[in-house]
TrEMBL record:
ATP binds at G146, S147, N148, G149, K150, T151, T152. Pathway: Cell wall biogenesis; peptidoglycan biosynthesis. It comes from Dyadobacter luticola. It is found in: Cytoplasm. This is UDP-N-acetylmuramoylalanine--D-glutamate ligase. GO terms for cellular component: cytoplasm. It is an enzyme of class 6 (ligase). GO terms for molecular function: ATP binding; UDP-N-acetylmuramoylalanine-D-glutamate ligase activity. Keywords: ATP-binding, Cell cycle, Cell division, Cell shape, Cell wall biogenesis/degradation, Cytoplasm, Ligase, Nucleotide-binding, Peptidoglycan synthesis. Belongs to the MurCDEF family. Cell wall formation. Catalyzes the addition of glutamate to the nucleotide precursor UDP-N-acetylmuramoyl-L-alanine (UMA). The gene is murD. Residues 345-458 form the Mur ligase C-terminal domain. InterPro entries: Mur-like_cat_sf, Mur_ligase_C, Mur_ligase_C_dom_sf, Mur_ligase_cen, MurD.
């Protein structure tokens, strides 16, 4: 029987049961089981996480209503219709939302919007999908966050665990909805990529292993341009962890070190470092990735991995640390590391044309990402950057740009900030709003051995749908140089 049909039958049975037994009294019981009362769950947002949360809520017997102020993608409408879940799009009907017992909201909806404020004033609990799903699984949770590198680290960790034969799911900010997988599958482990937006609305979310790769200024427009607010959001990942749980963190992050000193969390700590040898943790020394965690030792030359650059050394050390905490055999870790293929738009080599290498790093939506990207190359770089600035501080990459960038192409509707900051640092600057024009300028300036690097430091929404769209259009423009 198809899973959706089975869930639908179960849901209808629950509805009949709840309607008939709402006022059940348990004689001799000291508590009343709220599961016997059908509560209303409202889902705000009809994307991947929203549709998944709606399915999970219905599978648990809740009355469900989904509302999206925008237009819902047809594939999610098809799911909602098949599951007999009521929904609306193009509006939020407040009368149908404010009577909710629980609201699961999309990460993209800020807590400051009037509807969320009204819900909280009424005492309605508003949570994220990861919080909601975590309440219905006993699986071990590995949660990974950071301003940069979390997607690669999540994918690599998942790949190592899966290669090792663990029954593991991939979810969070990547892959299928966490809630959907909890509703349909029975994984023993989940590797979750977690954004600050998702961490803003947790209550009891409790990872067994958490990873904080780095915290640098990002999304400050969402956090009142107060960096500490963003830091606090990231540190929510350890909010419910205990001494039996583990936090893997980057030793060279001053922000993380300061927060740990201030918070003194009970969680067991395991560092990762590119600079020092750790007695308990993982580190890079003489080109070798080494882990020594709970008397479990592992090492592998970094140049044997398919991913390159110092930022990927950090990502690999984090993934190795997770694997060692789970006591995965070394040969299986090696197999996972060597067979890994990274997601697109992350220092992705597109073509080598006339001796010039074109690199797509469209996922680099903040300055810290560009720092690591530039640090990955020892050849002259023509940098294509720009987009929607989120409060960027370009001083972080000033020295790298001065030493490595021979030309800056600003691909943006608003070039003023980048142009004014780098006008005395970069020998030549070109401004455009057309990606093909940007690539053409890279070809014009490029010499044999040069790198044309799309690493924008900004969000993509001024000229593109998202960073994937920007990356795909960049790759198409590069390939047009070969086949115009």
């Amino acid at each position: 029987m198809p899973p959706f049909l089975l869930r639908l039958i179960k849901s209808e049975v629950r509805k009949i049961f709840f309607k008939r037994f709402t006022f059940v009294v348990c004689v001799g019981c000291s508590t009343f089981n709220s599961e016997f009362v059908q509560k209303k769950v409202v889902i705000l947002g009809g994307g991947e996480s929203g549709a998944g949360a709606a399915i999970l809520a219905q599978s648990k017997g809740f009355s469900v209503f989904l509302s999206d102020k925008g237009q819902i993608h047809q594939k999610y409408i098809d799911v909602l219709v098949a599951e007999n879940i009521p929904y609306e799009q193009g509006q939020h009907t407040e009368d149908s939302i404010l009577d909710a017992d629980l609201v699961v909201k999309s990460p993209g909806i800020p807590d400051t919007v009037p509807l969320i404020v009204k819900l909280r004033e009424k005492g309605v609990e508003v949570i994220s999908e990861i919080e909601f799903a975590s309440r219905y699984t006993q699986a071990k949770l590995i949660a990974i966050t950071g301003s940069n590198g979390k997607t690669t680290t999540t994918l690599l960790t998942y790949h190592i665990l899966k290669t090792a034969g663990l029954n593991v799911g991939l979810a969070g900010n990547i892959g299928d909805s966490f809630a959907l997988q909890v509703a349909e599958n029975r994984f023993d482990y989940y590797v979750l990529e977690i954004s600050s937006f998702q961490l803003d609305n947790i209550v009891s979310f409790h990872p067994n292993i958490s990873v904080i790769l780095n915290i640098t200024p990002d999304h400050l427009d969402r956090y009142g341009y107060d960096f500490q607010n963003y830091i606090d959001s990231k540190f929510n990942i350890i909010r419910n962890q205990t001494s039996e749980d583990h936090l893997i963190y980057f030793e060279e992050s001053e922000v993380i070190q300061m927060e740990l000193a201030k918070r003194k969390p009970a969680v067991s700590l395991s560092g990762i470092s590119l600079e020092i040898t750790l007695q308990q943790g993982a580190y890079l020394s003489n080109g070798v990735l080494t882990a020594d965690i709970q008397d479990r030792f592992f090492e592998i030359p970094f140049d044997e991995l398919p991913i390159k650059g110092p930022h990927n050394a950090i990502n690999a050390l984090a993934a190795i640390s997770v694997a060692k905490l789970l006591d995965i055999e070394n040969d299986k870790i090696v197999a996972g590391l060597k067979s890994f293929t990274n997601a697109p738009h992350r220092l992705e080599e597109v073509e080598v044309i006339g001796g010039v290498t074109y690199i797509n790093d469209s996922k680099a939506t903040n300055v810290d990402s560009v720092f690591y990207a530039l640090g990955s190359f020892d050849k002259p770089v023509i940098l294509i950057a720009g987009g929607v600035d989120k409060g960027n501080d370009y001083s972080q990459i000033e020295e790298l740009v001065r030493n490595k960038v021979k030309g800056l192409v600003v691909l943006s509707k608003d070039a003023d900030k980048l142009q004014s900051y780098f006008s005395s640092i970069v020998p030549q600057i070109y401004i455009t709003q057309d990606v093909q024009d940007a690539v053409n300028k890279g070809k014009e300036w490029g010499l044999v051995g040069d790198i044309v690097l799309l690493s924008p430091a900004c969000a993509s929404f001024d000229l593109f749908k998202n960073y994937e769209d920007r990356g795909e259009k960049f790759k198409a423009a590069v390939r047009n140089l070969v086949n115009p």
